[in-house]
């Protein structure tokens, strides 16, 4: 049986800051259904809930090197619905209030990467493929090639490195090479880990991994160009024959409007009026005028520049002044955007509901209630918001970039094909025009129901993407 170990800094339901955790927590479940012996390993953070910690089984412990010093490592295991999840234990590194952002992040995650490899024999699981994710685990491929090359048990292991967001690369002062990683300076001088005078973990992962994937077909092409390439585009072009975009999927058990206990009224593509029941209930909850027919637009996002907040700022006043709509926004982020949105709510109290918070239940209720979903990202490796919106019949209005381009197809009223509305340039006028096109189609309710049905029939579950990953693993195993 094909054996795969997923290595990541986070995974639902144990630890999450973003989409990485969703992928690592859900893709392995689908791979398991497709006959792969798959396991997950993440750090044992201090904030993992006690209900999980009390059920963990201690597997083994040891000491491993961190350059010139040695540190304790323990391995615990928890079986989650038949899927083994391992936890790398070291309280000095992982019993903290946050995931990232510490001065010793280079040491914390290089320790984690080395521990994963060194403890494999004690875990009694030697995988055919180790699937590593983002910069936090990039050094797994480096350590595998540089520190375990003489061990035949490791020689058969192949590595897949997935880029979830090229912008975050794990760049640290060059001194970490010897003081933290314990590697020879020749790997800096030859350029393997050197990056403009610093050490770049992701660069090492790109060069030492057997194969590279990223989270959508379009993003795999975009990052080979300078504009999106974050100064690594040259390496990605060199390795283009080992680079593939495989679209992220959505957990269709977690996000299902017919069974979702968080929303007000369950519904499916055959019961569009029940979706409007959710709108009425949300309007009441948010003290908006109860108007069943008014188009409701939603934005659920981190309030930061890459998510297109500058475009929202530029068009929102004009849109609310001239269109008969309601706008619901949920998210947190940069204070300047938060303050501006609070001002928008003051200017348009009967048309807006601005919620500066993160509330998972409310997010489900908004997806279920809203007619249109705004996602004007500057760049978007894959995106999960538009996938959830499609699942809930909340028609996406997106910029054609990354995974947004791969998943949202412009509606054509002549062929009745397409599941959303798109615009190409990062331009406020184009974004506004796309919204007005959608509002125009909303005026024909029969046509609108066709668009909603198209959206809800789009299949972006993990099934097909997991098949592609399995095929990749099998090719590498040969």
- Low-confidence segments, given as residue ranges, are none
Rg calc: 23 Å
Count of spatially separate domains: 2
**How do the strands of the widest beta sheet line up side by side?**
3-4-5-2-1-6-7-11-12
| CATH class call of the largest domain | Alpha Beta
- CATH superfamily descriptor of the largest domain: Glycogen Phosphorylase B
Number of helices: 22
DSSP strand tally: 18
Overall form: elongated
Tell me, rounded to a whole number, the average pLDDT.
96
Query: What structural class do the secondary elements suggest?
Result: alpha/beta
Distance between the termini: 13 Å
CATH topology of the largest domain: Rossmann fold
Strand content: 15-25%
Helix content: 40-55%
How does the major sheet shape up? 9 strands, mixed
- Just name the CATH architecture of the largest domain: 3-Layer(aba) Sandwich
């Amino acid at each position: 049986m094909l054996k795969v170990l997923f290595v990541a800094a986070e995974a639902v339901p144990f630890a999450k800051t973003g989409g990485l955790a969703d992928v690592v927590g859900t893709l392995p479940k689908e791979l398991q259904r497709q006959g792969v012996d798959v396991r997950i390993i993440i750090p044992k953070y201090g904030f993992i809930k006690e209900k999980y910690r009390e059920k963990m089984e201690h597997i083994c412990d040891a000491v491993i090197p961190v350059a010139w010093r040695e540190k304790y490592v323990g391995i615990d295991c928890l079986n989650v619905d038949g899927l083994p999840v391992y936890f790398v234990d070291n309280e000095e590194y992982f019993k903290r209030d946050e995931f990232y952002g510490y001065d010793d992040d280079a040491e914390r995650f290089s320790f984690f990467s080395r521990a994963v490899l060194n403890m494999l024999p004690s875990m009694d699981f030697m995988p055919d493929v180790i699937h590593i994710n983002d910069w936090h685990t990039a050094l797994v491929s480096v350590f595998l090639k540089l520190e375990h090359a003489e061990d035949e048990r490791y020689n058969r292991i192949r590595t897949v490195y997935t880029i979830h967001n090229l912008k975050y690369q794990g760049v640290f002062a060059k001194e970490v090479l010897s003081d933290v990683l314990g590697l020879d300076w020749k790997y800096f001088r030859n350029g393997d880990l050197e990056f403009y005078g610093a050490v770049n973990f992701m660069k090492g992962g790109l060069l030492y991994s057997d194969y590279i994937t990223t989270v959508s077909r379009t993003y795999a092409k975009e990052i080979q160009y300078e504009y999106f390439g974050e100064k690594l585009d040259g390496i990605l072009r060199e390795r283009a024959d080992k680079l593939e975009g495989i679209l992220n999927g959505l957990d269709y058990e977690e996000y299902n409007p017919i069974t979702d206990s968080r929303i007000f009224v369950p519904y499916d593509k055959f019961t569009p009026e029940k979706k409007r029941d959710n709108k009425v209930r949300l309007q009441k909850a948010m003290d908006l005028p109860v108007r069943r027919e008014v188009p409701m637009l939603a934005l659920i996002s981190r309030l930061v520049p890459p998510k297109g907040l500058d475009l929202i700022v530029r068009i929102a006043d004009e849109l609310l002044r001239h269109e008969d709509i309601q706008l619901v926004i949920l998210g947190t982020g940069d204070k300047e955007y938060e303050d501006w949105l609070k001002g928008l709510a003051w200017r348009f109290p009967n048309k807006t509901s601005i919620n500066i918070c993160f509330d998972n239940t409310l997010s489900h209720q908004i997806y279920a209630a809203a007619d249109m979903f705004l996602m004007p990202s500057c760049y978007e490796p894959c995106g999960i918001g538009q996938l959830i919106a499609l699942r809930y019949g909340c028609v996406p209005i997106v910029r054609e970039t990354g995974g947004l381009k791969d998943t949202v197809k412009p509606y054509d009223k002549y062929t009745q094909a397409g599941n959303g509305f798109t615009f190409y340039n990062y331009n406020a006028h184009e974004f506004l025009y796309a919204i007005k096109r959608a509002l125009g189609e909303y005026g024909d309710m029969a046509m609108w129901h066709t668009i909603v049905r198209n959206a809800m029939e789009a299949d972006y579950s993990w099934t097909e993407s997991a098949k592609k990953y399995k095929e990749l693993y099998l090719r590498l195993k040969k």
